[in-house]
């Protein structure tokens, strides 16, 4: 079953795209969108988590700008959607999604957050500011080096990592140099005992998991998805 549910934030109502598994859920997953919104692809990924046994939802983080999505082919339509979106706003929205899941009987230790692109950075932000069951970030830029105005570098929070985090990156990602990925890996090893892992795909570009983008890499996407489905039950409490 899939549906849109509206929850309240301090900045107004926000829709959640939800997908429920058949039978009892083994946990919950918050899916964080790319920079293009909760589009057909993100909804499909949310349904994939439900098919894997999780109650999954994707918060529509662009509600402050009136909501909506932008096409992958026209980045000029992306930036207007980010009106009012910053790290404080993102945490507020994630907290609203968490409150909704708590109302459905889930404890924070039973909830994972998984993000893609912009959402990959959000996964690290949340993992260093909230204690959840697990977190996974796909090609999240701006963690080690600032990549977008208004979104500060996050690597300084590595020592505060509170949620086990898996980072998945492509070596051919033009926006996330290998040096940034390795700096993040070494910083996490040095500064936290919370479990973390970073995986690099030599032939993958940015967006390699999205099967409607030219950068889709089937081998990397399948491996990254398998690793994600392995990471969650390792750390989510029953």
- How is the largest sheet built, in terms of strand order? 1-2-4-3-5-6-7-8
Give me the strand/helix succession.
EEEHEHEHEEHEH
What is the straight-line distance between the termini?
A: 22 Å
The class by helix and strand makeup works out as alpha/beta
The total count of strands amounts to 8
The helical percent reads 25-40%
Helix count from the secondary structure assignment:
5
Major β-sheet profile: 8 strands, mixed
Average pLDDT rating? 97
Architecture overview:
The longest helix is centred in the last third of the chain and has 18 residues, at 218-235. The mean pLDDT is 97. Strands 1-2-4-3-5-6-7-8 form an 8-stranded mixed sheet, sandwiched between helices. With 238 residues, it is an alpha/beta fold. The protein contains 5 helices and 8 strands, in the order E-E-E-H-E-H-E-H-E-E-H-E-H.
Core attributes:
single chain; 238 residues; alpha/beta; eight-stranded mixed β-sheet; 5 helices
């Amino acid at each position: 079953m899939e549906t849109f549910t509206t929850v309240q934030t301090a900045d107004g109502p926000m829709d959640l795209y939800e997908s429920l598994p058949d039978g009892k859920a083994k946990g919950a997953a918050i899916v964080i969108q790319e920079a293009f919104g909760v589009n057909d692809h993100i909804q499909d990924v949310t349904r994939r988590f439900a098919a894997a046994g999780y109650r999954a939802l994707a918060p529509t983080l662009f509600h402050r700008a009136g909501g909506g999505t932008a096409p992958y082919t026209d980045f000029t339509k992306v930036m207007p959607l980010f009106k009012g979106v910053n790290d404080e706003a993102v945490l507020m929205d994630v907290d609203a999604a968490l409150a909704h899941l708590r109302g459905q009987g889930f404890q924070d230790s039973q909830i994972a957050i998984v993000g893609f692109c912009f959402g990959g950075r959000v996964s690290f932000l949340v993992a260093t500011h909230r204690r959840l069951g697990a977190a996974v970030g796909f090609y999240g830029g701006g963690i080690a080096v600032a990549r977008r105005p208004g979104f500060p570098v996050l690597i300084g929070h590595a020592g505060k990592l509170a949620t086990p985090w898996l980072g998945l990156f492509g070596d051919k990602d033009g926006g996330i140099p290998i040096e940034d990925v390795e700096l993040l890996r070494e910083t996490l090893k040095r500064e936290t005992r919370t479990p973390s892992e970073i995986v690099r795909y030599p032939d993958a570009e940015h967006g390699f998991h999205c099967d409607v983008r030219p950068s889709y890499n089937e081998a990397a996407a399948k491996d990254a998805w398998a690793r994600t489905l392995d990471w969650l039950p390792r750390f989510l409490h029953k």
